[in-house]
Amino acid sequence: MIMAKQSTNKTKAGYTLADKLWGDTGPYSQVRTVFETRILDDAISRVFVNVEVDINPATFEYALSNRDLFKNDKVILDLLDHSDYRDQEFGYVSSAFSAEFTGPEVLERAKVHEAYSIAAILKLHRLVMAGLGKKPVS
Questions:
Q1: How sure is the predictor about 2, in pLDDT bands with cuts at 50, 70 and 90?
Q2: 104 domain residue, yes or no
């Protein structure tokens, strides 16, 4: 086993492994594509499309401690290098894409970054699941 099995014992920081994984049965993270509307005075000034990644603390910290496994994976290395810890509730947060919405081509570019981000999270989760001795879901 690469990681300790899930336990109900609290860690030094006060969180169990299950707490840090965010999922009841395994790692949970999310990739969000959101519209950000900026309002100046009484009018919309600009609209942005953002792709944001929230990685559970256990997965991020495990990946960081095993960084060499990802030396050829630019997307994962970028996530490890450019994510900010926002506390247990929000985990490690990174922006995968941000651009002003000027037309449908911006949404297409956002979808590409969303897909790369999802693939990276799936790869990280599979590593953690293997460490926990958990079989892949798909």
A1: very low
A2: yes
Q: Is residue 115 part of a domain?
A: yes
| Strand partners for 54 | 30, 93
Residue 96 · residue 31 · CB < 8 Å: yes
For residue 36, being part of any structural domain is answered with: yes
Q: What ranges make up the beta strands (E) of 1-138?
A: 30-40, 43-55, 84-85, 92-100
* Structural domain count, the chain: 1
Helices and strands (H and E) in the chain: how many: 4, 4
The mean pLDDT value for 104-132 works out to: 96
78 contacts: CB under 8 Å, gap ≥ 6: 94
Q: Give the distance, in angstroms, between the CA of residue 113 and the centroid of all CA atoms in the same chain.
A: 13
Q: How far apart are CA 52 and CA 31, in angstroms?
A: 6
Q: What is the mean pLDDT of residues 34-42?
A: 98
What domain range is 95 assigned to?
A: 22-132
Long-range CB contacts (< 8 A, 24+ apart) of 35-42?
35/101
Q: Can you give the pTM of this predicted structure?
A: 0.85
- Domain membership of residue 45 (yes or no) is yes
